[in-house]
Amino acid sequence: MIFNNVDFDTYFKHYPDKAGYFGKYGGSFIAPELQKAMDEITEAYYSICQSRKFIAELRRIRKEFQGRPTPVSHLERLSDALGGKVQLYAKREDLNHSGAHKLNHCMGEALLASFMGKKKVIAETGAGQHGVALATAAAYFGLECDIYMGAVDIKKQAPNVARMKILGANVVEVTHGLQTLKEAVDAAFEAYSKEYKDSIYCIGSVLGPHPFPLMVRDFQSVVGIEAREQFVDMTGHLPDAIVACVGGGSNAAGLFAGFLNDPVDIYGIEPLGRGPKLGDHAASLTYGTEGIMHGFNSIMLKDEKGEPAPVYSIASGLDYPSSGPEHAFLQEIGRVKYDVIDDEETVDAFFKLSRMEGIIPAIESSHAVAYGMKLAKTMEKGSVLINLSGRGDKDMDYIIEKYGIR
To answer: Is 119 one of the annotated active-site residues of the chain?
Structure first.
């Protein structure tokens, strides 16, 4: 399929290019000394990504340890409640070991670290799902693990903080700035710049300097590959639309990878939060402009000085002032439509899915559920596949405290 002069038959061979660019987005904008470390990671990844031994080991881990493939579930009662003309389905990444899609790339990154002879993995986390996943991977491979997390998110995500510590990770509290995801990334990069010889930075999404947008997308593509095969096997046809939430965008990139070359409408959903005023949301692709942060060029939210703006989201995993460069590219060429869902719609979807389907979704995933419900109401017929990127155990205390039981 050719879309806006981009041939999706050969898309993954050409995007990103050798310098890590998706069109004009991506690249690597970091200090020369740290660039040497990135070059080492790039060389190691390219040398093993086609290795039979590496691929076989990753497949074994996914099957025997992660519990893959995760299923696709028909959300029949929720579909009926919306009129029954459009059927909703969910790709159940909440059933992936550790409760979210994050383990898909964390096991790959930790396996790469072992291949490179590194002793430690370093990462940031917002909602804690990436931190838990990397702590899980580190325990599996016998690696040290430092997780940087904003003080605000530590309070919101106490269950995941406890899980990380039980798994043996060193959780480092970040207390500067807004004390959320951006600051956690800042601190993790600073630590890595001092320890790169013996450690590897395992970024939590499809962002950062090359090769991370490529690597994380590749590891997460298992979601879309599985979902496409499962959906066709279940229904006999492709879904009319697929939906995933987007912060940095790893779960979305994984789902989208399986369908980019198909006649399927694709939607990436950003957090509108409290509204469109700067500081009240984290919808960078919707309201941002081109800019460089954390070593990559993409679309970002900026303050009056052109610096990364303060952001907000009810979902700790989505409150980041930029998005992965591939998402910026897919938006620019029009292959993916990016839209927004606010806090109230998200919380409503959280409770509806819980009550009607017996599935408590992560508040991040609830953005996608809310949009899937909204989209279904506009369609005459068809089907929508939603990426349920994580489970909501981590969010229950916060939701009950702030919104009560509806």
So the answer is: no
d(CA 133, CA 251): 14
Cβ pair 127, 152 in contact under 8 A: no
* Residue 124 designated active-site: yes
Residue 288: Cβ-neighbour burial (10 angstroms; 0-12, 13-18, 19+): buried
Q: How many other β-carbons are positioned within 10 Å of the β-carbon of residue 162?
A: 13
Give yes or no: residues 262 and 371 share one domain: yes
My answer on whether 258 and 332 are in the same domain is yes
Q: Which of 109, 124, 270, 345 is catalytic?
A: 124
pTM exceeding 0.85: yes
Q: Which of 28, 79, 91, 102 is catalytic?
A: 102
Residues 350 and 229 in one domain: yes
Which residues form the domain of 312? 67-99+214-403
Quickly tell me which residue has 């509204």 as its tokens.
275
Q: Give the tens place of pLDDT for each residue, 5-50.
A: 999 999 999 999 999 999 999 999 999 988 999 999 999 999 988 8
The answer to whether residue 7 is domain-embedded is no
Q: pLDDT tens digits for 53-97?
A: 999 999 999 999 999 999 999 999 999 999 999 999 999 999 999
102 tagged catalytic: yes
- Say which CATH number the domain at 48 has: 3.40.50.1100
Is 127 in the same domain as 196? Answer: yes
Domain identity same for 240 and 153: no
User: Choosing from 79, 199, 284, 389, which is the catalytic residue?
Assistant: 389
